[in-house]
Write a structure and sequence with these properties.
The chain is built from one helix and five strands; from the N terminus they run ββββαβ. The protein is of the alpha+beta class.
Length: 60
């Protein structure tokens, strides 16, 4: 689970400051979110390109 740190925390033997991204297990991430130390990183998925409208021509 990817998170954005909202308050400085000690994570992985390092102090991680506000605005930095961390990756942790799902349960640990939920605990950090619940305590207000982090928020879930918003994943932006690019919109798929529209498919071209090409139809095969029928053969007689």
């Amino acid at each position: 689970m990817k998170l954005i740190v909202l308050r400085a925390i000690y994570f992985g033997s390092v102090v991680v400051t506000e605005g930095k991204e961390i990756e942790t297990l799902e349960q640990h991430g939920r605990e950090l979110i619940q305590k207000g130390y982090a928020k879930e990183k918003e994943v932006v998925h690019p919109e798929p390109e529209p498919k071209k409208n090409t139809k095969a021509k029928k053969e007689k």
